[in-house]
Amino acid sequence: MAVRKILLVDDDIDLRETLAEQLALYEDFDTIEQGTARDALEFLDTEKVDMIILDVGLPDIDGRELCKRIRKKGITVPIIMLTGMDSDADTVIGLDAGANDYVYKPFSFTVLLARIRAHFRQYEQSEDAVFDLGPYQFQPSAKTLVVNDNGKKIRLTEKETSILKYLYKAQGSAVSRDELLAEVWGYNSGVTTHTLETHIYRLRQKIEAEQNIDRILVTEQGGYSLKGIAA
């Protein structure tokens, strides 16, 4: 199971710690806390997260302005804003700043949790989605793998992208050849496993650092799996 990093930005220490403790009960979340907008921006200069939850009423910079600055950095992950101002105008301002959602205080944790999971699902299907895969950032919409160390781009074909994306969704579990064929080529395509194996071979030529040593795209009994998925 991949662990998703959530940046929680709120100057209310009690609320922040309570939310962090509640999220910590779920193994698929890792929460990082920041109390000011400036601390959050400084953190984002060097670290990547999968979601940002931020309060509108921060002490140094308005939360909506912070949201704008985050988006200007090119960060596309979901942003959920927390606010005590329940008005349509306030919501519109926040959404225009780049937020994905608004949650009004006081709120139920179960409601917030449902919003968090919903936005993760939506993001993973969106054009903006970026996934960590071993030494790469996998960008399905651009059909590209970007090498973390030097920014070099590895171009993928449409089928190679579809194979990686489907295997990524399996989160390290083995996927059978028949299942991959059905999902990538379609049930009635008439494509054989030889075609799949050819694509797998070419994909390995692009992504494995050493020939004949499969560290990322691994052959399993009857199928394949991806290793090196961010956890």
TrEMBL record:
Residues 128-228 bind DNA. The modification 4-aspartylphosphate is found at residue 55. It comes from the Bacteria. GO terms for cellular component: cytosol; protein-DNA complex. The keyword RNA-binding does not apply. The keyword Cell membrane does not apply. Gene3D superfamilies: 3.40.50.2300, 6.10.250.690, Winged helix-like DNA-binding domain superfamily/Winged helix DNA-binding domain (1.10.10.10). Transmembrane segments: none annotated. Residues 5-120 form the Response regulatory domain. Keywords: DNA-binding, Phosphoprotein, Two-component regulatory system. Residues 128-228 form the OmpR/PhoB-type domain. This is DNA-binding response regulator.
